[in-house]
Design brief:
Number of strands: 8
Distance between the termini: 15 Å
Strand content: 5-15%
Number of helices: 13
Largest sheet: 8 strands, mixed
Oligomer: single chain
Shape: globular
Radius of gyration: 19 Å
Helix content: 25-40%
Length: 347
Amino acid sequence: MTGDGCHEVLRVLADRVRHGSRPGERQDGQRVALAIEGGGMRGTISAGMALALHEMGAAHAFDAVYGASAGAITGAWLLSGAPENLTGWAEPAYVTAMIRPSNVWRGRPMVDVQNLVEYLYCEVARMDFNAILANPVEYHPLATDFHTGQATDLRPHLTSPAELRLALRASAALPFLAGPPIELAGRRFSDAGLSESIPYRTALAQGASHVLVLRSRPAPPLAAGKSDPGPRTRPSYRARLTSATALRIYPDPVRHSFLARDRRLLEDEALLAQYDQAVLPGGPTSVDRRTKAKSAVLSVRPGPDSPRVGRLTRDAKILKAAFEAGRTAIERTLDPLSLQTGLPPAE
C-alpha cells in the first residue's frame, strides 16, 4: 500500500474516472491494464467482477484488457458494447451451451467452446465482434503456442470477426476437455491456462504501468506468508497422469508447460501478494530493475465465504451466487466513493 493507505492502482483508476479520462485521450502518461483470470466455470466469478467495473463506470479507465481462457471471453463481452450480457455466465442457456457431458458419447469435447462461440454468440446472445475490434481499449486474448508451449498474445491476429472468434476458441481450447488446438494465422494454439492462467505477466511485459487483476479463486490460506514456493513443488500425480494420457500427442514444450502449472501458480500467488502490498522482491518499491519503470499490480479476489466453483460446475444456483460474489468483491475494493474522490475504499 502507499503511504496514505490507497493502492496506486486504485488511485490512478479513481483519478481517471473522476476526470472522465478516455482511451486515446490520456494525459497521465500511464498504461493501465485489466487482467482477467480464467478457469472454466470459475470464470463466472471474474465475470461478475467485470460487470461491476462497467456498472461503476470504470471500464473506460483501462487502456487494455488481457484475458486467459474464460477470462478472454469475459474481456470480449466487456468491450463488446453489451457488457450486461456478462450475466450469461450464470444462465442455464450459457452453461448448457458450453458444458455438454453428452458430447462424450458423440466423440465431441465435453467443454464445447465451438458451440458457445460459433452458435450461441452468433445466433442467440449475439456478441458484437466488430465493436470489440473497434474499441479504443485494446483487447489481448492469450493462448498457448502449440509448438513452443509459451504464452502468446493473439491481438496481432485479430483482423476480422472470424479471427476474433477463433482467438476466443483458442484461448479456451483446454486439451481433452475442450478439444484439439485451434489454428489461427498458420499456427496452432491451446488453452492459455497451460502457460499463463493469470495474464498479468504479459500485460507488464508489454509496458503496463498499472494492472488490476480479476481473480477467479479465493486467496489460499498461506499465500501472504510465503514469498518463495521453493523447490519442493512438483507436479501432482493427476498432472503427471494427464500429461501421459490426454497430452501424449502434444509436443514436449506444451507438456512441460502444463507440468509446471502448479509451481507457476504458487509463484504467481507469492508475487501478486507482494504487489498487493506495493512491494516487489528485492526492494521497497515497485520498480522493474530492467526498465527502471514503476509498476503497480492489485488483485481482486472473491471472499473466503464465496461459493466454491469448479471448472465444470453446472448448478445455476451456485453460479449465480458466484457471479454475485465477484460483483461484491469489486464493489468492496473499488468503493464508488473511492472512484470519485481518490480516497481509500471505505472499511
